[in-house]
Every structure is written in structure tokens, then in C-alpha cells.
């Protein structure tokens, strides 16, 4: 009996255990853990998005149009300088005679200027001067009123002729006229009259050369002139005086004329011409 009861109890326990396992397994299968939930793939439901109407974003209200005034376009107008109306070369004397008083404050000294055929005189005299020749017949200035003189001395029984320093006074008025000239106005007039000056220069047989080069050569000749330190002695083999120093006597006519001007006058002329030459160089085209 006892064995039968024991076997019966065991059977029931076994049956109950099997049922419990089945129940627990069903629960586990039906109710997964939180961690298992994370791996569950839920079905994706596609959301149908309605197409956006363009009109939903466009403001049908037009912005206020502000009209801007038209911008005036100003065209740059290049004003050509008015070229002076020049007279002909043959009629240029009256034009120059009218303008000359404006070039110097020493108007009384204009009587030293020869007012006939002035442009041709200037061109011919300058061309010769640049070559060391004095063309007296074409000089733009009148000759000095006083004549040259020398001083006779007798030292230790030896007669000698010395340069009279007072001779330089003959040229003082010419130097004063040059010093009184407004150099800026003179340079301006030179380039204004350049067409007539070129015409006069071409008449001499220089069709392709620039007269400004000749003018500056003449000025340079004065600037390069060296002044002797010793007192000049003279001789008079004939009517004309000569320099006793043969090295000086061999110089060209222009250099000997510059010596006759005297040291002080020559220094003033050099100073004035140096300034003019610099302005002439800057103003050249």
C-alpha cells in the first residue's frame, strides 16, 4: 500500500512539474523581457506625405516697387588748349614789339633791342654763336656806344698794354637787361614762337635739325667759359688789339668776346643762363 501511495504521489508531482514548465514557457514566450523587446522589429508604416503646394510658400502680395531716379551720366569733356594764332614770319616783328614790354621791368632797356627781323636775327646769330663765330651784322642787339680802350704802362722800362677793366662797363646795360627778363615768360614765348623759329632755321638749310639743341649749345658755350686769373696783356700790331698770350688769342671769337665782357659781367650772365637752360630743358616736349 505504501508503495502504491508513493508512486501515485510521485506521478502527481511529475505531472504538476510538467504543467508548471509548460505554463512558464508559455508566459516567457507570450511576455518577453524588456531586453528582448528591444530586438523586436516592428512593422514600418509608411506615412503618406501630401505634396506641398507651391502657393503655400509664395507670398502673393507683390513688394512695393520704389522707383529710383535715373542717374545722369556725365561725359568727360576734354578741352583742347587753344593754340595761339601766330602771325607769319615776315609779319612777326609787330607781334613781338607789342609783347616785348611785358618781359622786363626795365622797359627803358628795350632800346638796346633791334626790332627789325627779330626772329631771323636771333636764329642766325645763335647758330653762328654756337659755332664760335660772332655774326655782328645779325646781332639782335645794338653795338655798345663806347669803344674799346687799353691802358699803356711802363714797368722797368718795358712798355705794355693792359686790359682796361673799365671796358666791361660798356656791357653793363646789356647785362642789366638780361637780368631783368622774366625767364618763365621768355621760355613760354620761345615755345609759342617755335613754329616761326623753326621756319627761320630751315631757311638756313637745316630742315631736320631742332633749333632748341643749337640754342642750348650756345648757352653751354657761355657756361663752360673759363675766366683767366691773370690780368690780360694786349698787343697792337695793327689797328686791332690782340691778346699777348697766344693761347688766349687762338680762342674763337665768342670766347674772346666773353673775355671782353669782364669777369663780373660774365659771372652774372652765367648765373642767368644757367637758370634759363634748366627751365628750357624741363619745358622741352
Structure write-up:
With 285 residues, this protein is mainly alpha-helical. It has a domain at 89-283. 45% of the residues lie in helices and 6% in strands. Strands 1-2-3-4 form a four-stranded antiparallel beta sheet. β3 (233-235) and β4 (242-243) form a beta hairpin. The longest helix is centred in the first third of the chain and has 29 residues, at 2-30. It is elongated. The model is unreliable at 1-49 (pLDDT under 50).
Present the secondary structure layout.
Layout: H1 2-30, H2 34-37, H3 92-99, H4 118-130, E1 150-155, E2 158-163, H5 172-180, H6 183-192, H7 194-203, H8 211-223, E3 233-235, E4 242-243, H9 246-249, H10 253-260, H11 263-283
Antiparallel strand pairs: 1-2, 2-3, 3-4
Average predicted confidence as pLDDT: 80
Low-confidence stretches: 1-49
Helicity range of the residues? 40-55%
Strand arrangement, largest sheet?
1-2-3-4
Report the sheet with the most strands, covering strand number, pairing sense and barrel closure: 4 strands, antiparallel
Radius of gyration: 58 Å
Name the shape in a single word. Answer: elongated
Q: Tally the beta strands.
A: 4
Structural class: mainly alpha
In sequence order, what are the helices and strands, one letter per element? HHHHEEHHHHEEHHH
Amino acid at each position: 500500500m505504501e508503495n502504491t501511495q508513493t508512486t501515485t504521489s510521485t506521478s502527481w508531482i511529475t505531472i504538476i512539474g510538467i504543467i508548471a514548465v509548460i505554463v512558464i514557457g508559455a508566459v516567457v514566450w507570450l511576455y518577453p523581457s524588456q531586453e528582448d523587446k528591444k530586438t523586436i522589429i516592428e512593422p514600418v508604416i509608411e506615412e503618406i506625405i501630401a505634396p506641398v503646394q507651391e502657393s503655400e510658400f509664395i507670398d502673393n502680395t507683390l513688394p512695393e516697387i520704389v522707383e529710383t531716379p535715373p542717374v545722369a551720366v556725365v561725359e568727360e569733356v576734354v578741352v583742347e588748349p587753344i593754340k595761339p594764332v601766330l602771325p607769319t614770319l615776315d609779319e612777326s616783328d609787330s607781334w613781338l614789339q607789342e609783347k616785348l614790354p611785358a618781359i622786363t621791368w626795365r622797359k627803358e632797356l628795350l632800346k638796346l633791342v633791334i626790332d627789325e627781323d627779330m626772329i631771323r636775327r636771333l636764329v642766325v646769330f645763335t647758330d653762328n654763336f654756337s659755332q664760335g663765330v660772332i655774326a655782328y651784322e645779325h646781332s639782335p642787339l645794338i653795338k655798345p656806344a663806347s669803344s674799346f680802350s687799353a691802358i699803356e704802362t711802363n714797368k722797368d722800362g718795358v712798355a705794355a698794354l693792359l686790359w682796361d677793366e673799365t671796358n666791361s662797363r660798356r656791357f653793363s646795360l646789356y647785362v642789366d637787361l638780361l637780368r631783368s627778363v622774366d625767364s618763365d615768360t621768355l621760355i613760354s614765348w620761345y615755345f609759342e614762337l617755335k613754329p616761326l623759329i623753326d621756319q627761320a632755321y630751315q631757311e638756313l638749310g637745316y630742315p631736320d635739325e631742332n633749333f632748341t639743341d643749337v640754342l642750348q649749345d650756345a648757352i653751354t658755350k657761355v657756361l663752360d667759359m673759363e675766366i683767366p686769373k691773370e690780368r690780360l696783356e694786349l698787343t697792337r700790331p695793327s689797328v686791332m688789339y690782340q691778346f699777348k698770350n697766344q693761347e688766349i688769342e687762338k680762342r674763337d671769337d665768342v670766347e674772346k668776346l666773353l673775355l671782353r665782357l669782364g669777369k663780373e659781367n660774365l659771372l652774372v650772365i652765367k648765373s642767368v643762363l644757367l637758370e634759363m637752360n634748366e627751365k628750357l630743358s624741363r619745358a622741352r616736349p
